[in-house]
Specification:
The chain is an alpha+beta fold. The chain contains seven helices and four strands; from the N terminus they run αααααββββαα. The protein has a four-stranded antiparallel sheet. A hairpin with a 4-residue loop joins strand 2 and strand 3. The N and C termini lie far apart (97 Å).
Length: 179
């Protein structure tokens, strides 16, 4: 029964206490220690493939491509704010503060080989499915919902009739003579 409970917990994303937030913290620490192998351990296989392809296309080394952990959030001198962890089976996302662009970045994670890993390559490959909109997106949508929407009213009930022109400007600059 205990083994069954452990298996069930693993299915909800709590693999041995691992979380997408903990995975981001591991990635951040690996980037700060400049340990490319540790950085790669925090990537899904498709993310490593994606980085390898990007390296060859841009004529850069893998160390150069992987050095920032494939996210601008790791440029922060201290661990950035992390919020709104969302998990749906083996897919997850967390919002991490990007201090360079002053915005929340919604980072994709997938459970792979028993651990949560950054899934940028899976997002590009279309094999990642978001667990839902993040807090930042939901807040933006709520703010937009509060704004009055512009309405287009038609004063002319006969839309097939060509529009009527207003008074034609006259004067020396228009070339039209007043009547």
């Amino acid at each position: 029964m205990v083994a069954g409970f452990g298996f069930a917990c693993g299915q909800t994303g709590e693999q041995g206490g691992d979380t997408p937030t903990a995975a981001y913290k591991r990635l951040y620490a690996a980037v700060k220690s400049k340990d490319t192998e540790a950085i790669k351990k925090n990537f899904t296989k498709k993310t490593i493939e994606f980085g390898t392809m990007a390296a060859s296309l841009n004529e850069k080394s893998l160390d150069q491509v992987f050095s920032n952990g494939m996210t601008a959030t790791t440029f922060s001198k201290t661990l950035p704010s992390i919020r709104d962890e969302r998990v749906n089976d083996t897919m997850a996302a967390v919002e991490v503060w990007d201090s360079i662009d002053s915005r929340w970045e919604d980072l994709p994670f997938m459970l792979e080989d028993g651990a949560w890993k950054l899934a940028v390559g899976d997002a590009f490959a279309g094999t990642y499915q978001s667990p839902g909109n993040g807090r930042d997106q939901r807040e933006k949508e709520a703010a937009n919902a509060l704004r009055p929407s512009p309405t287009v009213s038609s004063l002319d009930s006969n839309a097939n009739r060509p529009p009527t022109m207003g008074k034609v400007p006259t004067g020396p600059l228009t070339g039209n003579k007043p009547k």
